[in-house]
Amino acid sequence: MTETFLGMPATAPPGVGHLRGDEPFPVAARRALGDAQLRRNVGHATSTIRARSAAVIGEVPDWPQLRAAARAIKTDTMARLPELLEQLEAAVGRAGGTVHWAADAVEANRIVTDLVRAAGADRVMKVKSMATQEIGLNEALEAAGIEPVETDLAELIVQLGDDRPSHILVPAIHRNRAEIREIFLRTMPGVDPALTDEPAALAAAARRHLRETFLSTRVAVSGANFAVAETGTLAVVESEGNGRMCLTLPETLITVMGIEKVVPTWRDLEVFLQLLPRASTGERMNPYTSMWTGVTPGDGPQAFHLVLLDNGRSAVLADPVGREALHCIRCSACLNVCPVYERTGGHAYGSVYPGPIGAVLSPQLTGVADNASLPYASSLCGACYDACPVMIDIPSILVHLRGQAPHPRGEAAAMAAAAYTMDHPALYAAAQRGAKLSRLAGPRGRGLPPPLSGWTASRDLPEPPPQTFRQWWADR
After folding, report:
1. What is the pLDDT of residues 274-312, one digit of tens each?
2. Cα 253-267-314 angle, rounded to 5 deg
3. Residue 37: helix, strand or coil by DSSP?
4. pLDDT for res 467
5. Are the CB atoms for 12 and 104 separated by under 8 Å?
6. Domain edge (last residue) among 313, 341, 370
7. Where are the beta strands (DSSP E) in 44-171?
8. What are phi and psi of 98, to 5 degrees?
């Protein structure tokens, strides 16, 4: 029996999963900015989703009230998370399922691998799941001699292309149709050499490829969009039907779910199922909404296992400001409006969670020092907060995390000197007068020498005003 307790503020372990990048964001972003095709692909996709989403959101007269209700539900859930998770565990158990508690990615991967082995399987089919991407489950299964098969079309593209997801909702958003066709021709067994890059033809090729997997694989692994503590019900929303196949055909179903995905009651789903599809895919409702409660004899999987994953979430919960990031319902609305994400794509963030929500969630899951550049991957324009269906104040969390990030000694010394100057009126007045000398640095400060040029490399140095406020006041 595992001694795992909610509230252990341990961060996600290094060396496993996909929460840490190999290089800081500025380095990766600079390289991404030089990829014109990537910028075209991401820009076209995000602008299309934005337009569709805005249209269907505009149809809902009580959208602000729905957002406020979702925020209230999430706030209440985080305040009662231990109680609700225990309620969920009991409800799942009564319905014939088994709940496993995983403190981190290592433990979650071990649990899933052991369950697949116990089922006597050497292959699993997977429903699109951010949690399993987070913990590196595919790599863990492959190391154990178990073949994972992604059944979501975008995830399949990423898997066949030996690639990484770059978007929460559309993992292959950085690929265009011609690139997808090339991946299918190169890696998909039995594909028609005359395959075109028409979406219908690509989808049909993927469907033929996956049909045998659906009918012959005895174990499936899924994530969950929501779990209802009251009833023990799990919910997955998707657009292709692959999730429905994975959730109904296999003998064993294993669901890996972050502990923050729980909601208190069945009625609470009413709010989120109105918000999620409109904010994410620009649809009034998802084409496939699958819900299951435990095991039903003779119908669907006959063994159900729910793995409740912490992996740093308790550390996030321990921060009164940062815990708001756990409200996220993975709709990706913040990514689709972010000017930084639109120009760099998702890989620059180094984490499976890219964009604005990744910039606040990943550093908290790993410890800010391990992702110190991500809180700065934002212009603080506030578009993410306006778009978020659960009203996460991402800009405020970004500023909060910037305060926790390690700073160079030179920067700390400069800030200390600035604080001392501002605390002494005579020095402050002299500094204001001296600010006019900044004109010598040239337009926008481009003439500053190192190390000061590091600041102006990505920012414009403001032009000093003709006179200081003190001078203006004295003149009047």
Report:
1. 999 999 999 999 899 999 999 999 999 999 999 999 999
2. 60
3. helix
4. 83
5. yes
6. 313
7. 98-102, 123-126, 147-150
8. -125, 135
Kindly report, residue by residue over 38-74, the tens digit of the pLDDT. 999 999 999 999 999 999 999 999 999 999 999 999 9
Amino acid at 327: H
Under a CB-based contact definition with an 8 Å cutoff, are residues 372 and 406 in contact? yes
Phi, then psi, of 309 in degrees rounded to 5? -105, 125
Tokens representing 62?
A: 């009580």
Binned at pLDDT 50, 70 and 90, residue 447 comes out as: confident
Record the tokens describing residue 42, joined without a space: 């991401």
Q: What is the DSSP pairing of strand 98-102 with strand 303-309?
A: parallel
Average pLDDT, the chain: 92
Count of residues for the chain? 476
User: Domain of 430?
Assistant: 414-475
225, 237 contact by CB (below 8 A): yes
Distance between CA atoms of 347 and 349, rounded to whole angstroms? 5
Full-model pTM? 0.89
Say how far apart CA 127 and CA 220 lie, in whole Å: 8
Q: Is residue 404 part of a domain?
A: no
- Tokens describing residue 244: 């429905």
Using DSSP, state whether 311 is helix, strand or coil. Answer: coil
Q: Rounded to whole angstroms, how far apart are CA atoms 166 and 358?
A: 11
Report whether 153 contacts 240 (CB < 8 A).
Answer: yes
Q: How many domains does the chain have?
A: 2
For residue 294, tell me if it sits in a domain: yes
Say if residues 275 and 329 touch (Cβ distance below 8 Å).
yes
Closest CA to 301 of 367, 382, 245, 361: 245
Of the three residues 287, 313, 339, the one that is the final residue of a domain is 313
In angstroms, rounded to a whole number, what is the distance separating the alpha carbons of residues 438 and 432? 11
Q: Which amino acid is at 305?
A: H
Q: What is the mean pLDDT of residues 439-463?
A: 74
Q: Which of 354, 351, 326 is nearest to 259 (CA)?
A: 326
Task: Report yes or no: 148 and 280 within 8 Å, Cβ to Cβ.
Answer: no
pLDDT in tens, 237-280: 998 999 999 999 999 999 999 999 999 999 999 999 999 999 99
d(CA 387, CA 378): 15
Inside any domain, residue 400? no
Which residue intervals of 192-233 are DSSP H helices?
Answer: 199-216
